[in-house]
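ok so i was messing around last nite and threw this chain in just to see what happens. nothing serious, just curious
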Amino acid sequence: MPAEKPSAQDRPGAPVGRRVVLGLLAAGAAGVLGGAQLQKGLEAVLGPIGIRDPTGLVGLLPVGNTFRFYSVTSGAPKRDASNYRLDITGLVDNKRTHTLADLQAMPQTNLVRDFQCVTGWRVPEVHWSGVRLSDLLDDAGVNSAATAVRFTSFDGTYSESLTLAQARRADVLVALEMIDGPVTHNHGGPVRLYVAPMYGYKSCKWLSGIELTSEVVPGYWEHRGYSIDGWVGQSNGRNDDPTS
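result:
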């Protein structure tokens, strides 16, 4: 999801030039001083730039309560109703492969919750809609040996995990819609994970795989020092134990 503010060495892609960055910083300051209309214009421009910014500086711009778009790769391939697949594998009784149409036909749950990035920015009262992860797990049948769930992305790199108890929370969705329509590609669509009570790095974008495992498998950012349990307000997102 999104995947939150990777470092330059972890996120390949075409760099944003120094002049562009300086210009954006100036424009961001103007947006704060120039009112809501200019601010909206900046948000429209900065979103597409942010997804391929290896410097991370775009995430620091004062663009208001809006999403910043990050990817830990140079970008994910696009998927739509014709080629999207979600595989449920691992310690399950029945492996499943769901198309986008399959997921859309299932009972949908609506939530209005904030999205909090570990880097500090927040988008309040986002409208989310999708299939409860617990419903998908029940449909596949969870083996008694399973204690955790691992998620993979069709960007080919990103992964995340939850304990089985966390995954069964009513506010954890396999999201098909957010804000005011289908989840867009930049937001991690057509299907992404949304873990309401945790920082955004736990909400895997471009979701392609759900695997039941016997133990928690640390995800992309956990291998880079982030907490496995990314509860908003109970963790700063970083693992503070220097021995870990």
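not much to say yet. Residues 69 and 114 are 16 Å apart (CA to CA).
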